[in-house]
Amino acid sequence: GVRKTRATGPRNLGVGKIIKAAANISRLAWVTSSTATFWPISGIVATYLISKLGDAEVATMGVISKLQPLIMIPVWGLSAVTTVLLSKAFVQQQQGQVGMIVKSGYGLVLVWQTVVALPFIVFALPVARFMLGGYEDALPFVVTYLMIIPITVFGRGMLYLAVHGLPAIERARTAMAIDAVYVLLLHTGCYWVGYLFNDFNL
User: Fold this and answer.
1) Which of 4, 118, 131, 149 has minimal Cβ neighbours within 10 Å of its Cβ?
2) DSSP state, 174?
3) For residues 195 and 37, what is the distance between their CA atoms, to the nearest angstrom?
4) Rounded CA gap, 79 and 104, in Å?
5) Which residues are CB-contacts of 57 (< 8 A; sequence separation ≥ 6)?
6) What is the model's pTM?
């Protein structure tokens, strides 16, 4: 790495620069790890609340936990690529490129959301039956979930693009705030409301 850059050897990499770079990496790593921590916390709370509602709701959570990560794989890839491109444009002070990259990333997430949504909406019932293995009590819940996949995928996609992209343009604290509000308040809050009203669909 050193050979292929302007630095000719270790003596050009001063201790001060190394410490500054390490501090910057640590700061961004802290933000990333903090946002990654929010989801397990919310997941623990949501699982506890859902377990109080009944077996059908727990079965539905099982289906969701299998389908959503699979659907999100392209979104994770898009957010990783977007982050790299944003960082490069920001460092090179290409402000016009930054906006275009963000819009393109969200546009691609919207396209993917539409592509993945249509088959699930059309085949919601047979997919739900297949995933549940004949457990009819959870069928209405899973069908409802499959019908709202467009919202969930696009919402999570927007979150991932924001949370991973913002640190690349020196907005790490904003990213952490967005993730905290989304996950700890909205995500956990939705399950809390459903629990209070004893209504999983709500």
Assistant:
1) 4
2) H
3) 23
4) 11
5) 50, 138, 141, 200
6) 0.69
- Summarize pLDDT for 76-110 with one digit per residue, the tens: 888 888 888 988 898 888 888 888 998 998 899 88
Phi-psi region of 198 (alpha: psi -120 to 50; beta: other; left: phi over 0): left
* Amino acid code (one letter) for 43: G
Specify the 3-state DSSP secondary structure of 140. Answer: helix
What distance lies between CA 80 and its chain's CA centroid? Answer: 11
Dist. CA 171–CA 160, nearest whole Å = 14
Q: Computed over its alpha carbons, how large is the radius of gyration of the chain?
A: 21
Q: How large is the angle between the packed helices 139-147 and 95-122, nearest 10 degrees?
A: 140
Q: 148-152: long-range contacts at Cβ-Cβ below 8 A with a sequence spacing of 24 or more?
A: 149/67, 149/71, 149/116, 149/117, 149/120, 149/121, 150/113, 150/114, 150/117, 150/121, 152/68
Lookup: tokens for 79:
């957010």
Sign of CA dihedral 33, 181, 46, 140: negative
